[in-house]
Amino acid sequence: MFDSPLSASAYEILGVAATAEHDELRRAYRVRLRETHPDTGGDAEVFILVQRAWELVGTADARAAYDRGHGFADGMPRGTAAGTTADPAGWRPAPAARDSRPRARSYGHPGGWRRERYLALIREWAGRGVDVDDPYDPALVRTAPRDLRRMLADALAEEATARTIADLGMAFTAWHDVAVDADPEEKLDHIVLSPSGLYSVMSEDFGGPVGFRRSEITGAVVGRSAPVTALLARARRIGRAARVRFGGGIVVLPDDDLAQAVTPLGAVRGTPVAVVRRSALATLLRQGVPGARDVGGNELFDIRSRLQQTVRFV
User: Fold this and answer.
1) Is residue 158 domain-shared with residue 37, that is, in the same domain?
2) Mean pLDDT for the chain?
3) Do both 172 and 32 map to the same domain?
4) Which of 90, 121, 141 is the last residue of a domain?
5) Cys-Cys with 255: which of 192, 263, 277, 308 at CB 3.0–4.6 Å?
6) 75 pLDDT exceeds 60?
7) Is the pLDDT reported for residue 306 higher than 60?
8) What is the span of the domain harbouring residue 135?
9) Closest alpha carbon to 278 in 193, 206, 226, 228
10) Predicted pLDDT at 229
11) Number of domains, the chain
12) Quick check: 79 pLDDT over 60?
């Protein structure tokens, strides 16, 4: 919440300018509470957002920290490491993990293609090809066109999924940013091989809550795209080339965008599919998508070998 490049700011949620005085901010908060309260016909999700926005900017200290971290104040340190107070969004690439525990086998560069595209496009947009001081400066990101913010948001989503998979241990193998054809837009975000099955995985951040209709993800933020259909089509092409069969498909979304942790969509064209909150992905991969076929023994090694020989990266 509030930490995606696509998120509305706390000020936008409260309906005031970032320069509003504290009294105006407080009045706006009270008005928004009345407007969004579920007991008076308001939207419960927006009601929660209003309360969270007030927590972020309702006191002088909290507001100063929020403004520094989200580009509403001068003097934000350049090049601040992701995850610090001055950069709560963590838009910069995460530092290399120092955990010594066994990690999943991982190939490819998760989010790499979209990071590169974002950097090229933000520099073109902001400086007409001239290098900008900090392409991840929240003030710059906040004012960029939505398609650029979406590019960065999806890169962050792919990186978050990859970190979750890596922590699952050596029984898991993942391939990231897998090329499907010459068009990198048609890539497969992740392939995950585990004892619970072989999965094609898509990591997305649409920037708002989604719904479902006829085994597809829908909603105003989704537009006319068909994520599940695209995921399965790409997986089929990789599967044919590698002579493997995917046991299931997974779409990973930010926690705030889903009403429940896991939403099974049933078998879509014969492939079980589930949509999962980011925080529930590890559990789903360990337990398996409902209806997916387990993989074990020599078959697991055979599938891994076939994919290693076939997979190419964008």
Assistant:
1) no
2) 90
3) no
4) 90
5) 277
6) no
7) yes
8) 105-310
9) 206
10) 97
11) 2
12) no
Determine the Cα–Cα distance for residues 269 and 61; give it in Å rounded to an integer: 53
Residues 120 and 157 reside in one and the same domain: yes
Is 18 part of any domain?
yes
Burial (0-12, 13-18, 19+ Cβ within 10 Å), 11: buried
Which two tokens mark 223? 């537009």
> Does residue 263 fall inside a structural domain?
yes
Measured between alpha carbons, how far apart are the two ends of the chain, in Å?
30
Which whole number is the average pLDDT over 251-270?
95
98 falls within a domain? no
pLDDT digits (tens, 9 = 90+) for 27-74: 999 999 999 999 989 988 889 889 999 999 999 999 999 998 888 876
Residues in the chain: 314
* Gap between the Cα atoms of 169 and 193, Å rounded: 12
> Within this chain, do residues 146 and 225 fall inside the same structural domain, yes or no?
yes
Q: Is residue 99 part of a domain?
A: no
DSSP 132: P
Do residue 27 and residue 138 come from a single domain? no
**Domain co-membership, 279 together with 234:** yes
Pairwise CA distance, residues 95 & 74, whole Å: 26
Q: Is 274 found in the same domain as 221? A: yes
Which of 90, 120, 150 is at the close of a domain? 90
Q: pLDDT tens digits for 137-169?
A: 888 898 899 999 999 999 999 999 999 999 999
The region of weakest confidence among 99-103, 209-213, 306-310 is: 99-103
Looking at residue 36, what is its pLDDT? 94
Q: Which amino acid is at 50?
A: V
Where does 10-130 show beta strands of DSSP type E?
105-107
Q: Is the pTM of this model over 0.90?
A: no
Are 245 and 109 in the same domain? yes
